[in-house]
Design goal:
Oligomer: heterodimer
Largest interface: A-B, 35 and 26 residues
Radius of gyration of chain A: 23 Å
Shape of chain B: elongated
Helix content of chain B: 55-70%
Structural class of chain B: alpha/beta
Mean pLDDT of chain A: 83
Low-confidence stretches of chain A: 1-5, 322-332
CATH architecture of the largest domain in chain A: 3-Layer(aba) Sandwich
Low-confidence stretches of chain B: none
Distance between the termini of chain B: 17 Å
Strand content of chain A: 25-35%
Largest sheet of chain A: 6 strands, mixed
Radius of gyration of chain B: 33 Å
Number of helices of chain B: 17
Number of helices of chain A: 11
Chain lengths: 332, 471
């Protein structure tokens, strides 16, 4: 990995401690320009700290870091769009005035800024609120306004910390489309989430952080190939009653009931395609598919070393609960 | 290193969001006007709504037999009225002298009309038999007090019984001292009424003592009265009238208040907006565009604009008032310049502390404990006001005027006093304060950068120092 100009962000051996607590431990990153990266990991894993270091809001204790070819984001702040996790707005300010203020702070010329702001508000279906005070907006509306504030100045690098938290499905899709749009326009996008399913939908590259360390850094496709669970999801006619019979099918290692269906784990060396054919020949199926690993599975496998014990179940529960957990972390 | 246009952008928003609001305009501009109005109204009401004057009968039990004619005359309605009017006139003259000519025509007229409205007590004096028994008279007074309150203001109501000893005006053979008098009063009389009665009796007794001793009263008062020409101060430039009166205190006090008010208002707003930005979580959004130092500088500069506006407005009002009363000469133009210079120095120190505190806490309530030492420091100039203004060039005044952060406040009092310090001292103070400003800003910048993103347990002083080391 080099500090080449084609890298939007690079980090080498970056470490950050807060007192005795190690927040980030030896993270290496090389994020090429034009890519869309997802930082995933549970709350408190070190995602926000990593992002704040990229933004030069925090400074690493050790290690090298470069952003858009500069030693520090301070030198290229106007080329970066940042939506922090702890995001707020001036409650008493009018939406239009707030966005113009942010635009000016990002170095935009005041001429034509009003039009740019209106265009953006139009795109997120908020054109009518620009004269309203920020405090009059709903939380979802505020979030869209904050998103505009982070991309208003047409940055080359967009960093979004938990951009989807608190959004309803409609606005989530709207935001996802906007992110896709930025990506298609050649912008580098980094975003963090503790909801791994969101990362799966958007990212082409995943960085997984756990307890301050990077545990995974790969493309989504490679991850899926690498963590192929060699299992089949089947919903046989007859449901769970067929469990015993299916276990007898050659090539099947063991079967566990999952919801209304069955998860069929295959013996070593058995091709999933062949196994599916055999299963279909012997049992009528409502549905049958090769199980694709979710990031959640991958994460749990990495963290627990492939064991499927109580720890893994607990971890899974923690991950799912993460949505509602208080996300306040010690910042410095 | 700092992007000036961003700093100015932050400053502009800070100023606009503070000064261009209804609350500020009302608080800073309308309120003082209203307060002056209220004070005026209160003064007028207080002067017109005096307690009703006392009327009633005074029994003179004059065992000396010679005091009562003089005292009765002295307490007659005509003489009482004459004395009260003369006294009001004297108070008016003294007041305008004391104010150092700062009082306007309006105020003098107000005092004139007040003098005319003055209500004075009215007495009926009954001289009893010289050997009259006091007890029935006291009993009569007691009965009236216990009786119908409606005849309280009746001329026949007994309000006082005065017993004058037989030897009050002439010493009995072989005695060391003159006799005395004793007065018995009805309860709830005005202090003025009691004073009037007692002083009249004393005056009468004294008058008779002079007479009996063969001394002319006029001669005595002539001998008693020692006058002087206006005292002069001899300075390097020559002689000048010793300045006395309120103007001596008022100008330094007004300068001190202006300075304190302007720097504290700006500083307080800075604290509030910083805490707001932090608790609103808008701060990290801002940090994506500006550095902490740019943010802090912008905010401090913006609120400096607020303080400067206040200072300019109130200074303008002050100058206007002085010019109106033809006393523009009381404050030299250089003093105005110093007020602005010392404002900027004092404000920067205070604002640095406010920025540091604001960034460190989660809400205004938490700010209180950290504010306490700062506020105590800001009270010092008030406490030092009297000693400094009494002797602006004493060792104490000189030393305190060099110690930041109170230095600007002490120095402005000295500069505005009638005995300003030498220029080199003023310049030295400015220099010392400038150094202090840099140190304060450095400290604030360190705390600010760490504090802004720190949520949770409110810090104490030790934590703040840790942050300074950390940043």
């Amino acid at each position: 990995m080099t500090n080449g100009a084609d890298l939007a962000v690079s980090m080498q051996g970056v470490r950050k401690t807060f007192g005795k607590k190690v927040a980030v431990e030896g993270i290496d990153l090389a994020i090429p320009e034009g890519s869309i990266y997802g930082f995933i990991g549970p709350n408190g894993a070190g995602k926000t700290t990593t992002i704040r270091m990229i933004m030069s809001i925090l400074f690493p204790d050790h290690g090298e870091l470069s952003v858009l070819g500069k030693k520090s984001a301070v030198d290229s702040k106007d080329r970066i769009g940042y939506l922090p996790e702890e995001r707020g707005i001036y409650k008493k300010m009018k939406v239009g005035a707030f966005l113009k203020h942010m635009g000016r702070l990002k170095g935009l010329d005041s001429r034509g800024l009003g039009n740019t702001v209106m265009e953006w508000l139009d795109r997120v279906e908020l054109a009518e609120v620009h004269k309203k005070k920020c405090e009059e907006l709903s939380k979802g509306m505020q979030q869209k306004v904050q998103f505009i504030a982070s991309v208003l100045h047409d940055p080359d690098l967009i960093i979004l910390d938990e951009p989807f938290s608190g959004l309803d499905p409609v606005n989530m899709r709207l935001l996802r489309n906007l992110i896709d749009e930025q990506h298609s326009a050649g912008k580098t996008v980094i975003f963090s989430t503790h909801v791994m399913y969101q990362a799966e939908q958007i990212c082409d590259h995943i960085v997984m952080i756990h307890e301050g360390s990077k545990v995974l850094d790969d493309t989504l496709d490679d991850i899926r190939a690498r963590f192929d669970p060699r299992a089949i999801h089947a919903d046989p006619v007859g449901g769970h009653a067929m469990l015993e019979q299916i276990t007898q099918v050659p090539g099947v290692a063991h079967v566990t009931p999952v919801d209304s269906a069955l998860e069929i784990v295959l013996d070593q060396g058995v091709e999933p395609q062949d196994a599916m054919r055999t299963l279909l020949n012997t049992h009528p199926m409502n549905r049958i598919e090769i199980k694709r690993p979710t990031l959640e599975d991958v994460f749990i496998e990495i963290v627990t070393g492939g064991e499927r014990g109580a720890d893994a179940a607990q971890l899974r529960a923690d991950l799912l609960a993460g949505n509602t957990e208080d996300t306040q972390e010690v910042a410095s | 290193m700092m992007n000036l246009s961003k700093v100015m952008r932050v400053a502009a928003r800070e100023f606009a969001s503070t000064a261009l609001t209804k609350g500020f305009i009302i608080g800073a501009l309308v309120l003082p006007v209203v307060m002056v109005g209220v004070i005026f109204v209160v003064v007028v009401i207080a002067s017109t709504q005096q307690p009703p004057a006392d009327t009633g009968t005074i029994y003179l039990v004059d065992r000396s037999k010679e005091v009562s004619p003089v005292a009765s005359d002295r307490l007659s309605p005509e003489q009482v009225e004459e004395r009260w009017k003369a006294r009001a006139e004297r108070i008016k003259e003294a007041a305008s002298g004391f104010m150092g000519g700062l009082m306007g025509k309006k105020a003098e007229q107000a005092m004139d009309s007040t003098a005319q409205m003055i209500k004075f007590p009215e007495f009926k004096v009954i001289v009893t038999e010289p050997d009259a028994d006091l007890d029935p008279l006291k009993a009569q007074l007691r009965d009236q007090v216990a009786g119908d309150p409606s005849n309280d203001k009746n001329l026949d109501t007994v309000i006082a019984i005065v017993e004058i000893d037989a030897n009050a005006t002439r010493k009995a053979d072989g005695e060391e001292d003159f006799g005395v008098y004793q007065a018995f009063f009805r309860p709830k009389l005005n202090d003025e009424t009691i004073g009037e009665i007692e002083s009249s009796v004393r005056w009468s007794i004294r008058e008779l003592r002079y007479e009996n001793a063969g001394i002319d009263r006029g001669t005595v008062s002539e001998l008693d009265n020692v006058n002087s020409r206006d005292s002069q101060e001899i300075t390097e430039e020559g002689e000048r009238k010793e300045s006395s009166g309120l103007s001596n205190f008022m100008i330094p006090f007004a300068s001190l208040m202006l300075l304190l008010m302007a720097s504290m208002t700006g500083g307080q707003y800075l604290l509030t907006t910083t805490v707001e930005e932090k608790s609103n979580r808008v701060v990290e959004v801002l940090l994506s565009a500006v550095s902490p130092l740019e943010l802090m500088t912008g905010k401090i500069v913006g609120q400096m604009g607020v303080g400067l506006s206040l200072l300019t407005i109130y200074n303008g009002v002050g100058i206007g008032a002085l010019v109106l009363f033809n006393r523009g000469d009381l404050v030299s133009p250089i003093t105005y310049l110093y007020i602005f210079v010392f404002f900027i120095l004092a404000y920067f120190m205070f604002a640095s502390l406010m920025a540091a505190i604001g960034s460190a806490v989660n809400d205004l309530r938490e700010a209180q404990s950290l504010m306490t030492p700062v506020m105590m420091m800001m009270i010092l100039p008030y406490i030092f006001f009297m000693p400094v203004i009494r002797s602006p060039n004493s060792m104490f005044s000189t030393i305190t005027s060099f110690i930041p952060p109170i230095s600007p406040f002490i120095m402005i009092m000295r500069v505005a006093s009638n005995d300003p310090p030498p220029v080199w001292q003023v310049l030295l103070a400015i220099g010392l304060n400038a150094i202090a400003v840099v140190l304060f800003l450095w400290f604030a910048a360190k705390v600010f950068r760490v504090g802004l993103l720190m949520f949770g347990k409110p810090p104490n002083l030790r934590t703040l120092i840790k942050w300074v080391r950390m940043a």
